Records
---
Amino acid sequence: MLTKETNLFDLGGKVAVISGGTGVLGFEVARYLLRQGAKVALLARNPDKLRQKVGILSTESEQCIGIVTDITDRIAVAAAAAQIIQEWDVPDILINAAGGNIPGAVIQPHQSLFDLSLTDFESVVHLNLQGTVIPSLVFAEGMQQKKRGSIINFSSMSVTRAITRVAGYSAGKAGMENFTRWMACELALRYGDGIRVNAIAPGFFIGEQNRRLLVNPDGQLTDRGQLIIQHTPMSRFGRPEELNGAIHFLSSDASSFVTGTVIPIDGGFGAFSGV
Ligand SMILES: NC(=O)c1ccc[n+]([C@@H]2O[C@H](COP(=O)([O-])OP(=O)(O)OC[C@H]3O[C@@H](n4cnc5c(N)ncnc54)[C@H](O)[C@@H]3O)[C@@H](O)[C@H]2O)c1
């Protein structure tokens, strides 16, 4: 029941897990959730990078741990979940931010359409689809017992708008968006209204993987970067901290009747016809 004191957005003491938490966007989300009083576990593959990022976050709050995990390895993810439960509790929030592209799954400018590497195509679909499916299944098991939890996936503009040359990544994210809706419905039908699954779809943010594609070493936009800005009514790239509002909303009780949705955070890219 709502009282005058109810803060729908309160995240104090919540346990959050962030895959890809050492990446540009995942790290920013981790910092934000720590500042909201949540406990945050980062899952990432590279131990050195993980140690470095957890070190930075520890200056914000002591409630941050890092666990070396490949999110496409179900056994490793289950071990990470067991460690988090032992340390704190079943997570309230799972943010599946790990993902990304593989150069071989992109048609390079000098290549023909028919040069596409099917092996790399499969790998990138695996990363972006299974890399969300596996942690979702593992962590939803605990959430199902508690009948509470919010899962937030990272989709992309490339699901609804064809982005030239980027074949495998787009297919992987499209499968993942479909899985978001499926998992949302299945969990609600079977376990009630306490567990929700949604996604955000960032537009274009400068990350580690796309920096070279969008910006030249001298700081000027590449041709592709310019095209994207022309197609973004707000005429700029997103800033990582601009994801935090939607992440906060979807993580908290403020979105208690929201499941199976995808929120674009794109400066108008998806809405614009280009004319
Ligand atoms: N940057 C953008 O413009 C943009 C736009 C739309 C969607 N996204 C999505 O947002 C998410 C974060 O993107 P970012 O820009 O921060 O990228 P990033 O490369 O900075 O971060 C991604 C992180 O995922 C990790 N990762 C990859 N495979 C992994 C695995 N198997 N196990 C564990 N960790 C793994 C990487 O090590 C990296 O730290 C990704 O899913 C990306 O596809 C990004």
Note: The helical segments are 24-35, 47-57, 74-87, 118-146, 167-191, 211-214, 223-230, 244-251.
---
Amino acid sequence: MLEKMSDFFEARLSGYDNHMLNDIEGAKEFYPFTARQLPINENCSILDLGCGTGLELHEYFALNPSAKITGIDLSKAMLDELARKFADRDITLIKGSYFDIPLGYNIFDAAVSVESLHHFTKEEKTALYSKLRDSLKENGYFILTDYFVSSDVDERFHRERLCELKAEQGITDNEFYHYDTPLTVEHEIEALFDAGFTTVEVLNNWNATYTIKAVK
Ligand SMILES: C[S@@+](CC[C@H](N)C(=O)[O-])C[C@H]1O[C@@H](n2cnc3c(N)ncnc32)[C@H](O)[C@@H]1O
């Protein structure tokens, strides 16, 4: 049965960090790698899309404890856990969808997102990335670590399967349901360029999980 995105993560909070770090291939490397790509200047402003319980922030605060973080997530339980872990850090948490929340203009030195954006279409992502690009300062950049499929056939398969499941379960609303529909890396890069990022490069990968850097 499909579950609404926030319900899915609320229900799995217990054991979430353990699952991500131990069951996701490459996680013990890609969290620190992602954190190392973020700015290390004091008091810099970083936006985290789908921050969850803050696994990437745990690594980042070790490198830059003075960073000012704005974290957005649909799940209150995940955000509460993040706030508990990092009570002594400069963090602003916003509960809601990054598709709906205004991100502002020229505010952030960099943005990051880890394992959150593999549920959305290229068109949905292009609109989000355009808004995200606007929120970055000049020369600001976005570090995306997420997993991807290796072919257009797989990409289409997952999207069609989600549509079938929604039809079977009588779901007609436009809410987000938890079902992985990753794009190919090629389509992800196209979405970032379509949104106006000037350079987009793959920095690393661990099997299906890639880190991509997109500069404003
Ligand atoms: C697999 S977790 C990743 C969390 C964290 N970045 C990490 O790597 O541990 C995905 C997170 O994205 C959040 N999420 C999914 N869709 C979202 C949306 N549209 N807006 C805000 N958060 C979203 C979920 O609530 C969940 O906490």
Note: The pocket of S-adenosylmethionine is lined by residues 5-6, 9, 20, 50-53, 55-56, 72-75, 78, 97-99, 114-116, 176 (CB under 6 Å).
